[in-house]
Specification:
With 43 residues, the chain is an all-beta fold. It has strands at residues 7-8, 15-16, 22-24, 30-32. The chain binds zinc ion.
Length: 43
């Protein structure tokens, strides 16, 4: 999904811009899509 707000990636700790592709990890934090351990998005 796309970020609707600015946040920080919990994996690489870089900023996530609004509109970037992000994923939510099981702990409830947001990470870049490419930083997620596994995608929760189904095809
Ligand atoms: Zn990241």
């Amino acid at each position: 999904m796309k970020a609707k707000f600015k946040t920080t990636c919990s994996e690489c700790e870089a900023p996530i811009k609004a509109g970037s592709e992000i994923s939510k990890i099981p702990s409830g934090k947001w990470v870049h899509k490419h930083c997620a351990p596994e995608s929760e998005e189904l095809p």
